[in-house]
Write a structure and sequence with these properties.
By secondary structure, this protein is an alpha/beta fold. It contains 14 helices and six strands.
Length: 304
């Protein structure tokens, strides 16, 4: 069995994953891979809760603001690049940390992506046309009908993921969920998954408070600088898309903030729906001392 181990930290947004990942990185004198796809873009800082300068200085990080919002980058690209970096890191380190709230990106590294069929251009174009003519609500409605299981966990504000799933359903006559349940790819390292959880009301309070802090730090100005790129997929995410109608005078600032908080809470709920299906995760209350969690994981490492 390999002596190399990837420790993966998962959980809903605002639960405290970043600080725990740094505690692990310090304990093992190692580096951190981010699998939070929202944090890839250098133009987006506050709304994506990118680690601050002190946190970034505490341990080497990978995949933090390494791309531009104008770059095309898929989960398949991330799987390739993350596995490549892991190979290099494991040449020198026995343990590497991966952390983030993008469940599909985490799965790409720990499980591998499924081999999905090629979709005819005519179907892709038809789904894209549906989105352009009727908006994201039409995509959400169709996906709910075609694949309720995936609808319950996907980021419903991400048109790229919705159009992809719908196109696959239309082309194959099967659900996207069925086609994504393939066999695990064999990785040449061990995997330990650590999850942080919080009671719903406490988590929702943390989410609301974090949005307030983002606003105090200048989130509104950050979004305003990006409003001309509102149609890019990277900007169609919680914390950015809700402010675009505000800048177009469709509703007031209070409503925009309410929607950011609501959609962030909904996103957290979908994250937990996904992660709770993974019985390989060892869960901890978010207030558990980091030293205690590290100790528990160290004991598990001894089993390898």
């Amino acid at each position: 069995m390999s002596s190399k181990t990837l420790i993966v930290i998962v959980g809903p947004t605002a639960v405290g994953k970043t600080s725990l990942s740094i505690a692990f990185a310090k304990a093992y004198q190692t580096e951190i891979i981010s699998c939070d796809s929202r944090q890839f873009f250098k133009e987006m800082t506050l709304g994506t809760a990118v680690p601050d300068m002190e946190e970034l200085a505490a341990a080497p990080h990978h995949f933090i603001q390494n791309l531009s919002i104008h770059d095309s980058y898929s989960v398949g690209d991330f799987e390739r690049d993350a596995v490549s970096i892991l190979e290099k890191l494991f040449a020198e380190k026995d343990v590497v940390i991966m952390v983030g709230g993008s469940a599909l990106y985490e799965k790409a590294v720990t499980h591998g992506l499924d081999d999905l069929p090629e979709i005819p251009d005519s179907i892709n174009e038809a789904v894209e046309q549906l989105y352009e003519q009727e908006g994201i609500e039409a995509l959400q409605s169709e996906l709910k009908l075609l694949d309720k299981s995936y609808y319950d966990i996907v980021d419903l504000q991400n048109p790229r993921r919705l159009t992809r799933a719908i196109a696959i359903c239309r082309a194959t006559g099967k659900t996207f969920t069925e086609l994504r349940s393939g066999s695990r790819k064999q990785r040449d390292f061990n995997i330990i998954k650590v999850g942080l959880d919080a009671p719903r009301e406490e988590l929702y309070d943390r989410i609301n408070s974090r949005v307030n802090v983002m606003l105090e730090s200048g989130l509104l100005n950050e979004v305003e600088q990006l409003k001309s790129y509102k149609n890019l997929v990277s900007l169609k995410t919680v914390g950015y898309q809700e402010f675009m109608p505000y800048f177009e005078n469709e509703y007031d600032l209070e409503e925009a903030i309410r929607l950011v908080k609501r959609n962030s809470r909904r996103f957290a709920k979908r994250q937990m729906t996904w992660y709770r299906k993974d019985d390989s995760v060892t869960w901890f209350h978010y207030k558990t001392r980091h030293t205690d969690i590290v100790q528990r994981v160290s004991e598990k490492l001894m089993e390898f």
